[in-house]
């Protein structure tokens, strides 16, 4: 801010600077207060912090720029100083298309994803959005490339957006179950409630999406007779196997090539195998099984 501007530009709902000097006081109900900023990339609006050095910056440098020029002073300080719980109420954006700013939007999405992951279990978040009707962000449903699902009619699941941006920051246990916030109702067929997590001290939240348990002495041994990653048994390892494994984990299919799906030789098939398989197809790991 300079003498010609007496305001700080930001997203609607993104400027919580006033909390530093004028925090809300709910008295005896203070524990129920949650601040909730929104944050988006340049395809929603090309804010000043998406220009200049951000354009050519590496992902790590881009994240630093966003933190220093936007996140820290507008809302991250609330979490850092322990003022109140912080819910990033909206984040997301387009991941496909021909817009000239798409590459910068993807860089933004990687940056905010990694920042959320670094502050896992401190920075809460909700992803915008699931439907297809948000023109400047798109949704997890799409009519373009994706995975069909029962009842979806002409809609598909946007695997690219989910796999690369949302999935890594979802809360999961060591055995791959998704952690829901309801105290009684588990989060889907492959989930647990927050009470189940509290009641079972051996069920710990997994620290990162790519954590791979070390096989025990009883873990299966790799064999050349198994094409690891060939979940659907068609003799190839590709994105169809990722889609099949995901559908298996959420209970949409019951039969897969289980030996080939256990790509970390843990003796169990869970979201860790899905993560490893995706990393293999993205060439961040070079061979399967991965231990």
Automatic annotation (TrEMBL):
Annotated spans, Disordered = 192-224
The Dockerin domain is annotated at: 224-290
**Which InterPro entries does the annotation name?**
Dockerin_1_rpt, Dockerin_dom, Dockerin_dom_sf, EF_Hand_1_Ca_BS, GH, Glyco_hydro_5
- Gene3D superfamilies for the chain: Dockerin domain, Glycosidases
| EC category name | hydrolase
Quick check: keyword Hydrolase in the entry?
yes
Q: Which GO terms describe its biological process?
A: cellulose catabolic process
**Catalytic activity line of the entry:** Endohydrolysis of (1->4)-beta-D-glucosidic linkages in cellulose, lichenin and cereal beta-D-glucans
Can you tell which superkingdom this protein's organism belongs to?
Bacteria
Annotated CDD domains? Dockerin_I
**Its Gene Ontology molecular function terms?**
cellulase activity
Sorted alphabetically, the keyword list is:
Carbohydrate metabolism, Cellulose degradation, Glycosidase, Hydrolase, Polysaccharide degradation
EC number(s) of the enzyme?
3.2.1.4
Biased segments, Low complexity type = 213-223
| Pfam hit, one | Cellulase
Q: Which family does it belong to?
A: Belongs to the glycosyl hydrolase 5 (cellulase A) family.
Name the UniProt record assigns to this protein: cellulase
Name the species this protein comes from.
Acetivibrio straminisolvens JCM 21531
């Amino acid at each position: 801010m300079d003498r010609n501007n007496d305001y700080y530009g930001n997203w609607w709902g993104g400027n919580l600077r006033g909390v530093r000097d004028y925090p809300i006081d709910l008295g005896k109900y203070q524990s129920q207060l949650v601040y909730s900023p929104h944050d988006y990339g340049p395809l929603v609006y090309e804010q000043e912090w998406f220009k200049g050095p951000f354009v050519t910056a590496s992902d790590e440098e881009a994240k630093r720029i966003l933190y220093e020029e936007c996140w820290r002073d507008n809302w991250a300080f609330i979490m850092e100083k322990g003022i109140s719980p912080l819910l990033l109420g909206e984040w997301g954006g387009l991941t496909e298309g021909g817009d000239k700013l798409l590459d910068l939007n993807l860089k933004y999405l990687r940056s905010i994803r990694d920042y959320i992951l670094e502050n896992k279990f401190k920075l809460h978040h909700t992803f915008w959005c699931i439907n297809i009707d948000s023109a400047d962000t798109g949704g997890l449903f799409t009519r373009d490339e994706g995975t069909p699902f029962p009842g979806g009619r002409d809609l598909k699941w946007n695997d690219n957006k989910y796999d690369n941006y949302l999935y890594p920051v979802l809360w999961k246990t060591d055995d791959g179950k998704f952690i829901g916030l309801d105290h009684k109702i588990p989060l889907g067929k492959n989930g647990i409630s927050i009470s189940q997590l509290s009641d079972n001290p051996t069920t710990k939240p997994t620290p990162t999406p790519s954590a791979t348990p070390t096989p025990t002495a009883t873990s299966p041994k790799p064999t050349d007779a198994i094409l690891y990653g060939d979940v659907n048994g068609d003799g190839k390892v590709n994105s169809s196997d990722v889609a099949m494994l995901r559908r298996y984990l959420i209970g949409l299919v019951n039969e897969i090539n289980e030996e080939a799906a256990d790509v970390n030789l843990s003796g169990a098939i869970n979201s860790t195998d899905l993560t490893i398989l995706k990393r293999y197809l993205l060439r961040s790991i070079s061979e399967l099984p991965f231990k």
